[in-house]
Amino acid sequence: MNQPHRIILLAHGSSDQRWCDTFEQLAAPTLESVEGSAIAYMELASPTLEDVVGTGKQNGIEQFTVVPLFLAAGRHLRKDVPGMIADLEARFGVVIRLADPIGKNPRLGYAIRDVVTEELETGTENASG
Amino acid sequence: MNQPHRIILLAHGSSDQRWCDTFEQLAAPTLESVEGSAIAYMELASPTLEDVVGTGKQNGIEQFTVVPLFLAAGRHLRKDVPGMIADLEARFGVVIRLADPIGKNPRLGYAIRDVVTEELETGTENASG
């Protein structure tokens, strides 16, 4: 089945497999729900952004949206990732849109509130009783 | 009103005010809903964890839970933060529990899925139509 557009969840990456495992768990609901979505790492882990764009292009996908699994934009998202994207667009002849980091979406703040509320109910029973 | 327990949302911190602004927006729903909750930064921004624990202790709070606003645990959460916490516990005579980083809670993965779904509906109309 053709998928004209691919969502790439971009995580920083780490040489610590436990770090990558957490991101794969974070990505799992998206990967299950959004056809053609994939996870990629900026550095220190694979698949890289280049791997995922290259594979997509081989499968006929020419439009990508990169959704950064970052809570806020620092140097990586303001400078490094746009540079990587410009390079990949030129090399593969594709269009790659860089979305805001997930932390810019208000849904994340609400999820954090719910995590903290749950934390108070379960983790601090002895302290808050 | 006495608040026997304080939740501290711990972010890494940055010298870039835009980065801190994003974390303050992320923290806002929690700060509005959870009495006595506060945000603190590991480094490069204020208030620091020491500031928040010290102020809490002055106000009679001796039990704290630190909820890391990190998607996954790297060196900071495995080593640096536990060291900072042990130091603050000794200096202030308080008990500080370090919760899992928010990214370990499945709610975050669901929020990410919803962000991506929204992204597909709004940001990629031209590409996916």
TrEMBL record, chains A, B:
Domain of life: Bacteria
Molecular function in Gene Ontology: metal ion binding; sirohydrochlorin cobaltochelatase activity
Assigned keywords, A-Z: Lyase, Metal-binding
Enzyme Commission designation: 4.99.1.3
InterPro entries attached to this UniProt entry: CbiX-like, Sirohydro_Cobaltochel/CbiX
Name the record gives this protein: Sirohydrochlorin cobaltochelatase
